[in-house]
Amino acid sequence: MAEYRETPDATYDGFAEKKIVRQSLSDEQGYICAYCMGRIETDTCTIEHYIPQKHHQDSPYSEEEHKQQSLLYSNMCAVCDNKAEHCDKKRGNIPLEILNPHNPSCEELITYSLDGSILPAGREKEKVQKDIDTLGLDCNKLKKLRYGAWSDDIWKRFKQEYEEKDWSKELFLKYAEKYRNKKKTKKGLRFHVYCNFIAWYFDYYANNYKKR
Ligand SMILES: [Zn+2]
To answer: 58 alpha carbon to ligand 1 midpoint, in Å?
Structure first.
């Protein structure tokens, strides 16, 4: 890609090796969407430009900067396919204020509630909320998917594996940590879908669960 960038009049549309980039990005991301954490696969994911390819009237960058960024790997991430309900398809070219999946501390800017809603956290809640809205991360579809991933899958299996008498703060924390990491699967190292929400739930139970 670096080589191609140096060719005169290089444009993202003219860049032929998008499949290699999709493979590399989805692998780095553990096969989850950079915005919603839903499952992505190399063949069906899309390459998203954090600083969009096209200039938007509210953008702090010049047309030229947008053009340069369109060929930078560090400006790209892999995102899910959907019907413009959320993520890049909902966002279009609208600039994001603060939520940047390339920034590792980005996760500290969001929190959740028990029903799968996503909420801003930290000191800049207004900016975070604006980005959540821009990306549609709190839409009903994603809320249901997040909650379902927890209640119909992870929590169900947890309850099959451990009796309530064995539940402890340590066990919940261990599971929270487990879902913050990629897991070995037949298809390589992957994050669980909506892994941060699942980790949040185990953390929440570690601090709040009252045995009956
Ligand atoms: Zn997504």
So the answer is: 23
Q: pLDDT digit string (tens) for 46-104?
A: 999 999 999 999 999 999 999 999 999 999 999 999 999 999 999 999 999 999 999 98
- Domain holding 208, by residue range, is 140-212
List the beta strands (DSSP E) in the chain: 46-49, 76-79, 110-112, 118-120, 183-185, 188-190
The Å distance, Cα 126 to ligand 1 centre, comes to 21
What's the chain's Rg over C-alpha atoms?
19
Domains identified in the chain, total number: 3
The DSSP letter of residue 113 is -
Spacing, Cα 37 to ligand 1 middle (Å): 6
Residues 13 and 86 both lie in one domain = yes
Query: How far apart are the CA of 101 and the centre of ligand 1, in A?
Result: 12
Query: Is 133 in the same domain as 148?
Result: no
Question: pLDDT tens-digit profile of 106-144?
Answer: 999 999 999 999 999 999 999 999 999 999 999 999 999
pTM above 0.85, yes or no: yes
User: Do 21 and 76 fall into the same domain?
Assistant: yes
